[in-house]
Amino acid sequence: MAVNYKSKTQLLKELNEIKQEYSILTKVFDYINDGIAIVQDDMVKYANIKLGEFTGYPKEETINVPYIKFVHPDELPKVVEIHKRRLAGEKVPTRYESALLHRDGSKVHVEFTVTEILYKGKPAVLAIIRDITERKKLQDEIISKAIFLDNLFESGPEPVALLSPDGKVIRVNKEFTKLFGYSSDEIKGQNIDDILAKEAFYQEATQLTSRTKKGERIRVVTKRYKKDGSLVDVEIIGSPITIDGKMIAKFTIYRDISEKIKAEKEIKKREERYRAIFEGSRDAIFIADENARFVEVNQAACELTGYTKEELLKMRIPDLHEETDLHAYKRYFHRIMNGESILSEAKIIRKNRTKVDTEFSNKRIFLEGIPYMHTVARDISEWKRDKEKIKASLREKDIMLQEIHHRVKNNMQIIISLMRIQARSIKSPTFTKYLQALQERVYSMSLIHDHFYKKQEFDKINIASYIKELTNHLFYISSKKEDQIKINLDLEEILLDLNKAVPFGMLVNEIVTNVLKHAFPGRKKGELSLRLYRDGNKKIHFLVNDNGIGLPKKVNVENPSTMGFQLIRDLTQQLDGEIQIESNRGTKIKVIFPEKY
């Protein structure tokens, strides 16, 4: 057998060619975009330049170094486990994502593609390492956006259903579940119209589905059924979702407008109510803007002015007034628009040029934040005529009442004169005394009518002034002088009508007369105090206090036998009052009665 032996020169030539090819391959490996590493006995036996760029080390510092030096600590357990299982012959992924540790401590996301090889006659692992930082960033961004969109969908403020083009439910959000009572799992894959649009609304719903299936966007107000069978007012907004012109799905918003519908009905109801009040008012109502132009009037305003509503809305306030009233109008208008409420009278000129006496009630109002003048006007022509008639009638009655009081007073004076003449002709001192007492009682009543005659008020009398005048008269006729009896008056101004004034006047007459006659006999000196006031319960208090000799012991205050005390008690009862009498170092009398019956 012949053996073909290569010459040494030929062998050297082949070896040189192999070295050249190896050099070319290593250069190619150094300049590709992926990192390449050969790991043998847990050491990096070969690494290209790109791997050094991934890790931040020069190429020569990546060779003959444990591979775990370049694996990020977060990924180290996983990478070591896969490497061990691969060397043990177990089936492990040939491609998986991981991360390298850069020299500066940063994390470099990579994808390993790993295969087993023989390197220099021994088992080794060849790893192709691809930088997926940008892809990972993009994936994370996509995931983040997906999470955001998912949260947006679930946490949206309005009920939303994601549907297939033919109307089948893909998913619904929380607000949808809250509104209709169905969970996503309950109706997923079912036709939305079969669930929400039963009976009378089914045909409408299928028509809407058909329109959105053709790519049309829809917006409609209608009703839909809840899970419990109740109806809810909704505004449905449907829109297709397309990619490259092809519809892949559609979303539908079911906006609950129950409260809105309810509020609109309430607003409409209120508008109708206020419109009815506005138009139903018998008084004319005008609303004018800041330029005094009418912006709203009612039918009564048209009837008052003779103009139609259309005509009035083209007019201003001055158009209805006489020239002489315009200055006052401008002054009032300015004050009203500054917040004053003013009641005024003026004449307005109707369309037929007649003039109408009118009362105006004016105030400022705000509509949508803008100030307007609100005026209620009333024709007072007839009222003014009636007012003049009433004034004339009242003047006649005042004169008549004045004359009546005057005549009553004069008649009583005649009676007093007759009794005085009669007393002179009677020889009996006792009977004369009785006549004198009657004269004083009649005088007290006459004095009341005299007060009514002198005052403008014919229904009430000032009791304070009456007491002063009566007391002065009684002091005069009793011949008591100021240096003998000092009188103290503390009288509140109180008005009483005739029914109360007459018995009260007689009561004052009896009490003061008794004090002047009996409390200070002879030339005994003393004090008499009269006080009149009204308490918080509208009760009148009349207090008489003297420091005279007091009442005789024989006088029974509770059951009096004398005419004077009997009359005092009877008059107190007429006043619907009560009387208290004390006699201790003088006499105290307190009369309390209500101001009105």
For the secondary structure, the number of strands is: 22
What's the alpha carbon Rg, rounded to whole Å? 58 Å
**Unreliable residue runs:** none
Distance between the termini: 164 Å
Keywords summarizing the entry:
597 residues, 22 strands, single chain, five-stranded antiparallel β-sheet, 28% strand, alpha+beta
Produce the secondary structure layout.
Blueprint: H1 8-31, E1 35-40, E2 43-47, H2 49-55, H3 76-87, E3 95-101, E4 107-119, E5 122-131, H4 133-155, E6 160-163, E7 169-172, H5 174-180, H6 184-187, H7 192-196, H8 202-213, E8 218-225, E9 231-243, E10 246-256, H9 258-280, E11 284-288, E12 294-297, H10 299-305, H11 309-312, H12 326-337, E13 342-349, E14 355-367, E15 370-379, H13 381-425, H14 429-454, E16 460-462, H15 463-477, E17 485-491, E18 495-497, H16 498-519, E19 526-534, E20 539-546, H17 563-574, E21 578-583, E22 587-594
Parallel strand pairs: 17-19
Antiparallel strand pairs: 1-2, 1-5, 3-4, 4-5, 6-7, 6-10, 8-9, 9-10, 11-12, 11-15, 13-14, 14-15, 16-18, 19-20, 20-22, 21-22
Helix pairs in contact: 13-14, 14-15, 14-16, 15-16, 16-17
Structure in words:
- The chain starts with 7 loop residues before the first helix and ends with a strand.
- Helix 14 (429-454) packs antiparallel against helix 15, helix 14 (429-454) packs across helix 16 and helix 15 (463-477) packs parallel to helix 16 (498-519).
- It contains 17 helices and 22 strands.
- The longest helix is centred in the last third of the chain and has 45 residues, at 381-425.
- The strands form five sheets. Strands 2-1-5-4-3 form a five-stranded antiparallel β-sheet. A five-stranded antiparallel β-sheet has the order 7-6-10-9-8, with helices on both faces. Strands 12-11-15-14-13 form a five-stranded antiparallel β-sheet.
- Helix content is 44%, strand content 28%.
- The protein has 597 residues and is an alpha+beta fold.
- 22% of the residues are buried.
